[in-house]
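Narrative progress, year one. The postdoctoral researcher (J.K.) led the effort to move from monomer predictions toward full complexes, under supervision of the PI. The following entry was the first complex the group processed end to end, covering 594 residues in total.
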Amino acid sequence: MLGVPIIADLLFIWFPAIASIALSFFRWSGIGGVHAKACASTGGLIPPDGCFYGVQNYSYAATTYPQFWPAVEHNVIWLIVFMLIATPLGMLFAVVIDRGIRGSRIYQSVLFLPVMLSLALIGIIWQFVYSSNFGQINTVIGHNKNSNLIDWLGNPHLNLWAVLVEASWRQAGYVMVLYLAGLKAFDPSLREAALVDGASAWQTFWRVTFPVLKPINIVILVVTVIESLRAFDLVYITNRGSNGLELLSVLVTNNILGETSKIGFGSALGVVLLVISLVPITIFLYQTFRKEQAR
Amino acid sequence: MTTATAPAPVARRSPARPPARVAAQVFMISATVLWLVPIVFAFYVALRPISETNKLGYVSIAHTLTLENFSNAWNQSDMLRFFENSVKITVPAVIITLFLASCVAFVVSRFNFKFNVALLIIFTAGNLLPQQVIITPLYRLYLQIHLPHVISDSGLLYNSIAGLIVINVSFQLGFCVFVLSNYMKTIPHEMYEAAVVDGASLWARYWRLTMPLCRPALAALATLLTTWIYNDFFWAITLVQTGNKRPITSALANLQGQFVSNQNMIAAAALLAAIPTLVVYLLLQKQFIAGLSLGSSKG
């Protein structure tokens, strides 16, 4: 009963994760095998392959590969926008809905709708909002003439922000649902007591509600970081993640889908993602399993 | 579970002062409108012929509303096949994931093995990894694993429906093990003691006692998994090379290229692809939210 799921998880998730680390120290096109000899020692006209490359994949990424630093920057911007806009917006939705204002149910259903849709679909339907000649935005602001078009998804200075609006549109609803679950588990009498004691609504939220909700806040923090690192579908459906929309996840994938397959280099980029993602993963595991260990 | 079902919106505290209430309403109404605009507009575009929107733009009053884009999108592409692929991947993947995850969760929650926590950590952490971390070696692995041609006509795990089922199951196991083990821990020990006294085998305690009690959690997870696996884009883009083997969500990328001269038809195709998720949204929204809540509220 335990064997199959454990083998599946180890073979298809953890083995590739560990193999990523190992392969990142090799130069390998995927053709032929991998051996432990250092790359420099094999001479000849054809570049050596399947050989030990040390940290050169990493130094190539950091110093020569032109898309690496833009991708890192885009991932960081993605995370910042999620942290400062999408996530707080979702939390605000949740707080307002939880207070039971009239129409809460309708608001909740509508704001939640994008969470059910695939990101590929979201990327497609937003193209009609952003379309330069016919789209809503340009029509409304009067920039739909050929002389003054704004190319929201094509201009490399704008498209990341345009896609981030799409991403936040979905993320806010996701955070809202998670936070609502946390809020509903919250005992309202705590808040009443604070209000009776003369605390303002603002103080009550920050000093009472927010600290009590620490577990759900950590879940949301983790979800926010992980989702920013996973971001892929939206930029891929928009322009295959190029021209201003490079992300680490896209660079990794390009080494498989692209013309040249550089397994070692792709793995090194994957390891960069792995190292960053270990931070939120560790935080989550620590908060979740600390109690179990003690028991 | 009580946290998960949306309770009637009764005021949980003394009602806010009128100005605050008005501000809240204005805020929520504007947000709701903003949230609906992209979806409604895509639908509006899909209902109009390209000749008309090319002349008038999308923001204009429609002269003709027709379902032609939908029928053309359906007839001029392999959509039926893409939907079939989606079903062939999603249905087995959801069933296998729930079965395997419930087995692990049952063992972890019923027996006090030392490795329980380690096991839970391995599964949970595996589900949190960004998919791209593992894709490069996974792709190589998929090219190495051979399958009989009965299961995969590529002869490999790569480029096969079976391969997509395997990775979706492996990846989603973590989340389901985590949720189900938390859920099963709430089942009182006494019930199991009574079952043992009655001579119930291990299998009976799992299948006839635990699983029926977990029905609400299983239903919520099934809804969640169906949506997630149906919506999967990344695994299908990377692990399936041939266009006609792709499930509908990732096939949208191909359709985008195919219909590049008729954006309205792309909108129609995308909305057709959304029908199953919209059905889930309308009928099973509560289950979906319950699943998410189960995953997040048990710290």
